[in-house]
Amino acid sequence: MAASLITALSAVRIHSTAIVEPDVQIGPGTAIWDSVHIRHSATIGAECIVGEKSYIAPAVHIGNRVKINAFVYICSDVTIEDGVMISAGVIFTNDRYPRATTPDLQQLRSSEPDEHTLPTLVSEGATIGAGSRIGCGLTIGRFAMIGMGSVVTKSIPDFTLVLGTPARNVGYVCRCGHPVLRFDHRSAPRSAELQCDLCGRSYHLRTGLISEPAALA
After folding, report:
1. How is 85-153 classified by DSSP, letter by letter?
2. Reduced to 3 states, what is the DSSP secondary structure of residue 187?
3. pTM score, whole prediction
4. Percent above pLDDT 90 for the chain
5. Cα(157)–Cα(55) distance, integer angstroms
6. Which end of the chain, N or C, is surrounded by fewer C-beta atoms within 10 Å?
7. Which pLDDT score is estimated for 213?
8. What is the average per-residue pLDDT within 102-122?
9. Same domain for 119 and 33?
């Protein structure tokens, strides 16, 4: 690694303290900051930011213009689509019943993906708040928003705002991130026409699921 703090290589910026293993693909314009560790076979798209001291495991796939803050742990078989925000201290998981060893305690289980590994998908435009914990085998919907410190145990629909431990639906958000509706999770509305007070975008709520007009979807 060059003596300068940041090394420019094919328009990719990699901090001198970062560890990038062989067979990692990184798109142009992406910045990898100090003490990041990216494991083999991970892929990261263009114009991303990976914050300091974050860890990206094997078989992780990250899209374009993704922002990953500091101290984030992304385990194997997580897929993150374009435009996702992952705030500081977020932890992903990929095994519901983890053990360190085989049942006879005579052999460590491998950390590589295996038949116990459950994939997680973070869909485009979603935001995961600081300190959240993300369960495995689930999908976080398009432009969904997870409040800080939440524990996510179930899949989250598109444009849905969730908070708490476990995370529960408490509203819906616009593409711009501004809430378009807030409510108590025990009395969630089923149908409504919604509009963002900040940017003016419109949404349809039908049977508890929110969607955009066809022209924007």
Report:
1. EE-TT-EE---SS--SB-TTSSSBPPSS--TT---EEE-TT-EE-TT-EE-SS-EEPTT-EE-TT-EE-
2. helix
3. 0.91
4. 81
5. 27
6. C
7. 87
8. 90
9. yes
Q: Give the span between the Cα atoms of 109 and 215, in whole angstroms.
A: 49
Number of structural domains (the chain) is: 2
Residue 28 to residue 11: CA distance in whole angstroms = 5
Q: What is the DSSP letter of 156?
A: B
Instruction: Give the range with max mean pLDDT: 52-56, 93-97, 106-110.
Output: 52-56
Cα 104 from chain centroid? Answer: 35
Looking at the predicted structure, is the pLDDT value of residue 35 above 70?
yes
Q: What percentage of the chain's residues is helix, strand, coil (to nearest 5)?
A: 0, 35, 65
Do the beta carbons of residue 129 and residue 144 sit within 8 Å?
no
Residue 77 covered by a domain: yes
Residue span of the structural domain in which 94 resides:
6-173
pLDDT at residue 122 above 50?
Answer: yes
